[in-house]
Every structure is written in C-alpha cells, then in structure tokens.
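pipeline: protein-struct stage 2 | run 1193 | 3'-5' exoribonuclease
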Amino acid sequence: MSYIMVDIEADGPIPGDYSMISFGAVVVNETLDKSFYGKLKPISERYIPEALAVSGFSREDTIMFDDPAMVMQQFADWLKEHSKGRPIFISDNNGFDWMFICWYFHHFTGSNPFGHSSQNLGSLYKGVVKDASKNFKHLRKTKHTHHPVDDARGNAEALWEIKRTHGLKIGL
C-alpha cells in the first residue's frame, strides 16, 4: 500500500452543487518525485467567488479546464501505475478533500480506487506526539500556496518527517 497525499481546490463547499477546480497528489516516499495535477471544468453553474478566488483562477479560466471524467480516469490510471497495492488517501483536511475526490471518482468513473476511507494528517500528528493541541504545519518545507501540488507536497514532506523522526510505519 502507498500513501497518497492529496489536496484539492474548489469553488464551493460541497461536490455536486459546486465544482472541484483542481487537485494535486503526491506519492509519499523519500524523494516525493511522483505527482499528479488535474484541472477540472466546472460541473455546475453555481460557484462562490470568494471560494474560487482561493485557487487563483477566474471562472473564465476554469471553463477552459479539462473534462472531469477524463481527469478522474487519468488520476485512476496514475494511481494504478504509482501505488503499491490499494492506495491510502491522506490529506491535511480529509473531510473536505476526501468528499470531493470520492464524489468525483464515483460520479465519473463508477468507483473510488482509495476505497471507502481516508486519513487526516493533523490527527495522525497529534496522536504521534500525544498532544491534541499540536500542529504539524511547521514540518512542511514547501510553502503553502494553494496550488494543490505544492500543498500536497508540503504535507507529504511533513508526513515523511513524522516517519523519519518518530519511527512512524506507513507501509512503504
């Protein structure tokens, strides 16, 4: 099994009514040299300008993005190629990121390669250090930019550092 760090950007709070605009994924390993980036055309006329602004794209930009069905199939193929066994979904905000990725996979490909569960990096860190008030974000090396590959890479760096310094076994 391979841990895949994922980050998404969206133009609203929930999938279906709103759209996932882009997402990035990084295989968590020592080199962090395998990444995926997808930009998806909106699936809904609805969007919240302030939410979309976080991504750095305009509505006009997003309308020119790729077909979501094609992007999700490319991501599924990428996961097959770069994951050992069933991939494990992990993110900084898995409640948000997971619902979009899961919904888009089921809606556009009929299944989710990650299965039915996800993991949260922040919760994992709190457990490792045995302190629910601690935050992992100081372990990132890559700046948090709201480009989903940068953000996934920074979070993957943090997970790798937790593995290195605390002996966390993550199935590599």
